[in-house]
Amino acid sequence: MEKTDVAIVGACAAGLAAALTIKMRSPSTKVVLFRKVSNTPVPCGIPYIYGTLKDVNKNIIPDKSFAPYGLDIRVSEVTDIDTNAHEVQYNGGDRLKYGKLLLAIGSVSFVPPIEGVDLENVFVIEKDPKHLNIINAKIQESKNIVVIGGGFIGVEMAEQIAKLKGDSADITIIEMLPRCLMAALEEEFCVRAEEELKKLNIDIKTNSQVTKL
Q: Among 6, 46, 156, 172, whose CB has the most other CB atoms within 10 angstroms?
Protein backbone atom coordinates (compact mmCIF):
# COMPACT_ATOMS: atom_id res chain seq x y z
CA MET A 1 0.00 0.00 0.00
CA GLU A 2 1.17 3.51 -0.83
CA LYS A 3 2.33 5.52 2.18
CA THR A 4 2.81 9.17 3.07
CA ASP A 5 4.12 10.95 6.14
CA VAL A 6 1.25 13.45 6.20
CA ALA A 7 -2.15 13.27 4.50
CA ILE A 8 -4.16 16.48 4.28
CA VAL A 9 -7.85 16.33 3.37
CA GLY A 10 -8.64 19.70 1.81
CA ALA A 11 -6.34 21.78 -0.37
CA CYS A 12 -7.75 25.26 0.05
CA ALA A 13 -6.30 28.05 2.20
CA ALA A 14 -5.81 26.09 5.44
CA GLY A 15 -4.63 22.85 3.83
CA LEU A 16 -2.14 24.56 1.52
CA ALA A 17 -0.77 26.77 4.29
CA ALA A 18 -0.29 23.74 6.52
CA ALA A 19 1.40 21.77 3.75
CA LEU A 20 3.79 24.61 2.94
CA THR A 21 4.67 25.06 6.60
CA ILE A 22 5.47 21.36 6.93
CA LYS A 23 7.65 21.32 3.79
CA MET A 24 9.54 24.49 4.72
CA ARG A 25 10.33 23.08 8.17
CA SER A 26 10.97 19.53 6.98
CA PRO A 27 11.59 19.32 3.20
CA SER A 28 11.99 15.53 3.27
CA THR A 29 8.53 14.96 4.74
CA LYS A 30 6.15 13.49 2.19
CA VAL A 31 2.85 15.37 2.06
CA VAL A 32 -0.22 14.35 0.05
CA LEU A 33 -3.20 16.71 -0.25
CA PHE A 34 -6.67 15.73 -1.46
CA ARG A 35 -9.26 18.08 -2.94
CA LYS A 36 -12.50 17.24 -4.71
CA VAL A 37 -12.56 20.29 -7.02
CA SER A 38 -10.55 20.83 -10.19
CA ASN A 39 -8.70 23.91 -8.93
CA THR A 40 -8.40 25.87 -5.71
CA PRO A 41 -10.11 29.29 -5.74
CA VAL A 42 -9.01 32.08 -3.41
CA PRO A 43 -11.93 31.94 -0.92
CA CYS A 44 -12.09 35.62 0.06
CA GLY A 45 -11.85 36.65 -3.60
CA ILE A 46 -14.89 34.72 -4.79
CA PRO A 47 -17.36 37.68 -4.89
CA TYR A 48 -14.83 39.73 -6.87
CA ILE A 49 -14.87 37.20 -9.70
CA TYR A 50 -18.07 38.74 -10.94
CA GLY A 51 -17.52 42.50 -11.02
CA THR A 52 -13.78 43.14 -10.77
CA LEU A 53 -11.99 40.10 -12.21
CA LYS A 54 -14.82 38.99 -14.54
CA ASP A 55 -13.23 35.56 -14.84
CA VAL A 56 -13.20 32.63 -12.41
CA ASN A 57 -9.74 31.63 -13.66
CA LYS A 58 -8.28 34.92 -12.37
CA ASN A 59 -9.15 33.87 -8.82
CA ILE A 60 -7.38 30.51 -8.84
CA ILE A 61 -4.40 29.51 -6.71
CA PRO A 62 -2.11 27.91 -9.33
CA ASP A 63 -0.84 24.43 -8.50
CA LYS A 64 2.47 25.21 -10.22
CA SER A 65 3.28 27.62 -7.38
CA PHE A 66 3.72 24.62 -5.11
CA ALA A 67 5.81 22.49 -7.46
CA PRO A 68 9.14 23.65 -5.95
CA TYR A 69 8.00 22.35 -2.56
CA GLY A 70 7.23 18.86 -3.80
CA LEU A 71 3.60 18.81 -2.72
CA ASP A 72 1.51 15.94 -4.05
CA ILE A 73 -1.92 17.45 -4.81
CA ARG A 74 -4.56 14.94 -5.88
CA VAL A 75 -7.96 15.83 -7.32
CA SER A 76 -10.03 13.17 -5.61
CA GLU A 77 -12.61 13.05 -2.83
CA VAL A 78 -11.72 11.18 0.35
CA THR A 79 -14.64 8.87 1.05
CA ASP A 80 -13.46 7.04 4.18
CA ILE A 81 -10.93 7.48 6.99
CA ASP A 82 -9.78 4.62 9.18
CA THR A 83 -8.02 6.25 12.13
CA ASN A 84 -7.11 2.89 13.68
CA ALA A 85 -5.32 1.66 10.55
CA HIS A 86 -4.12 5.19 9.64
CA GLU A 87 -5.60 4.95 6.15
CA VAL A 88 -7.70 7.16 3.90
CA GLN A 89 -9.80 5.84 1.05
CA TYR A 90 -10.21 7.87 -2.12
CA ASN A 91 -10.85 7.54 -5.84
CA GLY A 92 -13.57 4.95 -5.30
CA GLY A 93 -11.40 2.44 -3.46
CA ASP A 94 -7.72 3.38 -3.50
CA ARG A 95 -6.17 3.60 -0.04
CA LEU A 96 -3.26 5.60 1.32
CA LYS A 97 -1.53 4.91 4.62
CA TYR A 98 -0.52 8.01 6.58
CA GLY A 99 1.63 8.84 9.56
CA LYS A 100 -0.26 12.01 10.46
CA LEU A 101 -3.66 13.21 9.24
CA LEU A 102 -4.88 16.80 8.95
CA LEU A 103 -8.50 17.65 8.17
CA ALA A 104 -8.68 21.02 6.43
CA ILE A 105 -12.03 20.62 4.74
CA GLY A 106 -13.11 24.19 5.45
CA SER A 107 -16.63 25.50 5.75
CA VAL A 108 -19.82 25.03 3.77
CA SER A 109 -22.55 27.58 3.24
CA PHE A 110 -25.49 27.35 5.61
CA VAL A 111 -28.66 26.84 3.60
CA PRO A 112 -31.72 27.86 5.64
CA PRO A 113 -34.74 25.53 5.49
CA ILE A 114 -36.68 27.76 3.10
CA GLU A 115 -39.28 26.25 0.81
CA GLY A 116 -37.99 26.43 -2.75
CA VAL A 117 -34.23 26.48 -2.13
CA ASP A 118 -33.93 23.56 -4.55
CA LEU A 119 -35.57 25.43 -7.42
CA GLU A 120 -33.79 26.31 -10.64
CA ASN A 121 -31.73 29.52 -10.56
CA VAL A 122 -31.25 29.38 -6.78
CA PHE A 123 -27.54 29.18 -5.95
CA VAL A 124 -25.32 28.80 -2.91
CA ILE A 125 -21.74 30.09 -2.99
CA GLU A 126 -19.35 27.14 -3.07
CA LYS A 127 -15.56 26.91 -3.40
CA ASP A 128 -15.81 25.04 -6.70
CA PRO A 129 -14.68 26.78 -9.94
CA LYS A 130 -17.19 24.85 -12.07
CA HIS A 131 -20.06 25.90 -9.81
CA LEU A 132 -18.82 29.50 -9.72
CA ASN A 133 -18.72 29.55 -13.53
CA ILE A 134 -22.36 28.44 -13.65
CA ILE A 135 -23.30 31.29 -11.32
CA ASN A 136 -21.34 33.70 -13.51
CA ALA A 137 -23.25 32.64 -16.62
CA LYS A 138 -26.60 33.04 -14.85
CA ILE A 139 -25.69 36.49 -13.54
CA GLN A 140 -24.79 37.58 -17.05
CA GLU A 141 -28.27 36.76 -18.35
CA SER A 142 -30.36 37.78 -15.31
CA LYS A 143 -32.25 41.05 -14.87
CA ASN A 144 -33.62 40.49 -11.35
CA ILE A 145 -31.13 39.26 -8.74
CA VAL A 146 -31.85 38.72 -5.06
CA VAL A 147 -29.10 38.14 -2.49
CA ILE A 148 -30.32 36.50 0.71
CA GLY A 149 -28.07 37.57 3.56
CA GLY A 150 -26.45 40.93 4.23
CA GLY A 151 -23.24 39.69 5.79
CA PHE A 152 -19.81 40.11 4.24
CA ILE A 153 -20.31 37.66 1.37
CA GLY A 154 -23.82 38.83 0.58
CA VAL A 155 -22.83 42.52 0.56
CA GLU A 156 -19.73 41.82 -1.53
CA MET A 157 -21.71 39.74 -4.01
CA ALA A 158 -24.39 42.42 -4.39
CA GLU A 159 -21.80 45.18 -4.82
CA GLN A 160 -19.85 43.23 -7.42
CA ILE A 161 -22.96 42.20 -9.35
CA ALA A 162 -24.01 45.86 -9.43
CA LYS A 163 -20.56 46.78 -10.71
CA LEU A 164 -20.94 44.19 -13.47
CA LYS A 165 -24.56 44.80 -14.44
CA GLY A 166 -24.92 48.53 -13.93
CA ASP A 167 -28.49 49.63 -14.63
CA SER A 168 -29.29 46.46 -16.60
CA ALA A 169 -30.45 44.56 -13.49
CA ASP A 170 -32.48 45.10 -10.33
CA ILE A 171 -30.49 43.89 -7.32
CA THR A 172 -31.92 43.36 -3.85
CA ILE A 173 -30.36 42.32 -0.54
CA ILE A 174 -32.66 40.72 2.04
CA GLU A 175 -31.32 40.68 5.62
CA MET A 176 -32.93 39.50 8.87
CA LEU A 177 -31.11 41.98 11.12
CA PRO A 178 -31.88 45.72 11.30
CA ARG A 179 -28.77 46.51 9.23
CA CYS A 180 -26.49 44.79 6.75
CA LEU A 181 -23.17 43.71 8.31
CA MET A 182 -24.64 44.18 11.78
CA ALA A 183 -23.32 40.82 13.01
CA ALA A 184 -19.78 42.16 12.55
CA LEU A 185 -19.84 45.96 12.74
CA GLU A 186 -21.20 48.73 14.91
CA GLU A 187 -24.34 50.33 13.53
CA GLU A 188 -22.73 53.59 12.42
CA PHE A 189 -20.49 51.67 10.02
CA CYS A 190 -23.40 49.54 8.83
CA VAL A 191 -25.27 52.72 7.93
CA ARG A 192 -22.32 54.00 5.92
CA ALA A 193 -21.99 50.67 4.10
CA GLU A 194 -25.69 50.69 3.23
CA GLU A 195 -25.37 54.24 1.90
CA GLU A 196 -22.63 53.08 -0.47
CA LEU A 197 -24.72 50.13 -1.61
CA LYS A 198 -27.68 52.39 -2.32
CA LYS A 199 -25.45 54.58 -4.50
CA LEU A 200 -25.16 51.51 -6.72
CA ASN A 201 -28.99 51.29 -6.87
CA ILE A 202 -29.06 48.18 -4.70
CA ASP A 203 -32.38 47.81 -2.89
CA ILE A 204 -31.93 46.82 0.76
CA LYS A 205 -34.67 45.10 2.76
CA THR A 206 -33.65 44.69 6.41
CA ASN A 207 -35.69 43.25 9.29
CA SER A 208 -36.92 40.87 6.63
CA GLN A 209 -36.91 37.09 6.53
CA VAL A 210 -37.40 35.00 3.42
CA THR A 211 -40.09 32.39 4.02
CA LYS A 212 -40.55 30.93 0.54
CA LEU A 213 -39.05 30.99 -2.94
A: 46
